[in-house]
Amino acid sequence: MGKFALNLNAELTGVKNLAPKDEESFYYAFKVQCSGCREIHDNAIEISRSETHSIPGSKGEANLIWTCKNCRKTCSFVIEGPFSPYNDSQETKKVLVLECRGCELVEFIPQGEWIANGAESNTLFDEIVLEDDWYDYDENASSEVSITNLEWSISKA
Description:
Elements: E1 2-13, E2 15-20, E3 28-34, E4 45-47, E5 53-54, E6 61-62, E7 64-67, E8 74-80, E9 93-101, E10 103-109, E11 113-118, E12 124-129, E13 134-138, E14 143-156
Antiparallel strand pairs: 1-9, 1-14, 2-11, 3-4, 3-10, 5-6, 7-8, 8-9, 11-12, 13-14
């Protein structure tokens, strides 16, 4: 069993509280490495806290049960706690913790829609895509806002 932290470091200009748009139904995408055969799989897995599955041979549940296509080892993933909104521009911060059994997280793939608030105006920006740098204009604060230099990392929690 291993607990992994998803960490974020980004430059926020004029925005705060960066988080998934709808955390309950949001799908986090990761590349994984099987702890049995050590294969890093090409296809990403997607995990949502809204899904629960029974763990085979156990009384427990997980957000995702996945089987390695090479060695057939069964792996389980549990999202622990809520996403912690990112506010600390240019500071690495743990934003999510996952418990993984049978495999390890090796890369986060940002996808889906994210939200943030204007730092001065509290304007809601609710269609942020983080596949690249993001820029917009906060009309209430009369200033440009942006999220740039995103660096996602995974560490032991």
